[in-house]
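hey so u asked for the seq, here:
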Amino acid sequence: MDSLPERDPQGFLVNLNDWTPSVASDIANTEAITLTDAHWEVIKLLRHFYQEYELSPAMRILVKLCKEKLGDEKGNSIYLLQLFPGSPAKLASKIAGLPKPTNCL
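ran it, structure tokens below
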């Protein structure tokens, strides 16, 4: 595993331009997550959302976004919790190389 780019104390990238798919895999590994196609689907959605709105979505917005783009069976908090345990919006944003969503502890 390559050394990760500089990260803040919570593990978020300091420079968002340092993100690559392999950096995402390295961050996921530090969180004990092996990325699957399902994870990448959400990560790509998050990155597109960030490009458009310049913010990382909080949980409610993430659920709505997934429901809109991926369908009802993936647009719910239980599905997202299975992929990104604990705080899906925060963890998925971290892996996607985005800033921590506002309203996430």
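Residues 40 and 86 are 18 Å apart (CA to CA). Helices lie at 21-30, 37-53, 59-70, 77-83, 88-95.
lmk if thats what u needed
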